[in-house]
Specification:
single chain; alpha/beta; Rossmann fold; 5-stranded parallel β-sheet; 8 helices
Length: 211
Amino acid sequence: MSLKFTRESRVLFIGDSITDCGRRTDPLGLGNGYVRLIHDYLAAKDPAHAPQVINMGISGNKVTDLRDRWTRDVLDQKPDVLSIKIGINDVWHGFKDPPAGVSIEQFVGVYHALLRQVHNVLPHCKIVLFEPSVIGPPAPADGNKLLQPYVRGVNEVGRGFHVQAVVPLHGLFLRAQQDRPDIAWAPDGVHPSSAGHMLIARAWLSALKLL
């Protein structure tokens, strides 16, 4: 069953730079990525019932950064639908010198604790999780291999909380890159192009049966 919205419905997206996409300098606060595409699609599909869309992405965030701002940027916002896309920096920052990533054990533990808070404080809130997308050339070549446990971790957390959907983003990006390598889905190996953001938006809408 697809979600039903009213103009009072609040759909909140939180995550890292892939969610942020310049939203803090955008007059509408949406940025220029998949969040705006979803907002515009829902507005065009049913203007009378289009929900309020809130973008709380911050570039560079890891799951531990979400934890530090969870009350202010999620719980206090009282969303009806919460969508989370996190995990890329938890792995990618592990390549820095010194390493600043988040271990898979901490990643799953913190993620679980965040969803527990939502469950306790906002029991009506529908939760949607994104698998981390991709880390590949020209980013470190073994990035996708190291990302795999985090993809599995998101699915594990999602099953534990019976979330509305886990968007299978990692496999979608890998298949798109294989099927059409001439399209720059993530030119720097991490950040999606406009086509990549459309892939994310369509995957979210499809997972929620809104297309």
